[in-house]
C-alpha cells in the first residue's frame, strides 16, 4: 500500500469537510513553478484587488486576514453596492467575517468553507484555510465572468 503524504492527507481532510468544493488550484492560476507560484499569484491578485482599502495590507494568507477587513475589501472591490466598506471597523471581527462570507455566498456563489466562529476564535487565521477559501472565491468569480483570465 503506497504511503500517503501529510499534504495529501490534509487535502483529503479539507475535501471531506467541505464536500469537495475546492478541488485543486483555482482555474487559470496554474503556471509553471508549482504550488508556490500559484500561491504567489493568488496573493498578488488579492493584494491588487484590495490596494487602497483602509486597514488592509495583504502580505500573507494568515495575519493579513485577521480582522476580516481584507475579505470585505476583496468582495467590495467586486460588489461595491453590497455594503458600505467605510463603515466597517477593524475591531468588529465577527461582523466583518459574517458580512464577507455572506456576501461571497450570495453574490459570488462561493461555498461557505470558513466558519465565522472558527475565524474569531483564533487571533491569526490558519493560512491553509484562508488560501483554500480564496481559491474557491477566485474560482467562483471566474465562473461568473467577474475575473478575466488569459486563454490557454
From TrEMBL:
Residues 36-142 form the Calponin-homology (CH) domain. Keywords: Coiled coil, Phosphoprotein. InterPro entries: CH_dom, CH_dom_sf, F-actin_Monoox_Mical. PROSITE patterns: CH. Belongs to the smoothelin family. PANTHER family: CALPONIN HOMOLOGY DOMAIN-CONTAINING PROTEIN DDB_G0272472-RELATED (PTHR23167), SMOOTHELIN-LIKE PROTEIN 1 (PTHR23167:SF45). This is SMTL1 protein. The lineage of its organism: Eukaryota, Metazoa, Chordata, Craniata, Vertebrata. The gene is Smtnl1.
Amino acid at each position: 500500500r503506497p504511503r500517503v503524504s501529510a499534504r495529501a492527507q490534509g487535502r483529503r481532510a479539507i475535501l471531506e469537510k467541505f464536500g469537495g468544493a475546492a478541488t485543486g488550484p483555482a482555474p487559470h492560476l496554474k503556471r509553471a513553478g508549482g504550488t508556490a507560484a500559484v500561491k504567489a499569484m493568488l496573493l498578488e491578485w488579492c493584494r491588487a484587488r484590495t490596494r487602497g482599502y483602509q486597514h488592509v495590507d495583504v502580505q500573507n494568507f494568515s495575519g493579513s486576514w485577521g480582522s476580516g477587513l481584507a475579505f470585505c475589501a476583496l468582495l467590495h472591490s467586486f460588489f461595491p453596492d453590497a455594503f458600505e466598506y467605510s463603515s466597517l471597523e477593524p475591531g468588529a471581527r465577527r461582523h466583518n467575517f459574517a458580512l464577507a462570507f455572506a456576501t461571497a455566498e450570495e453574490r459570488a456563489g462561493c461555498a461557505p468553507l470558513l466558519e465565522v466562529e472558527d475565524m474569531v476564535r483564533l487571533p491569526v487565521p490558519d493560512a491553509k484555510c484562508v488560501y483554500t477559501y480564496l481559491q474557491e472565491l477566485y474560482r467562483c468569480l471566474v465562473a461568473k465572468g467577474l475575473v478575466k483570465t488569459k486563454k490557454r
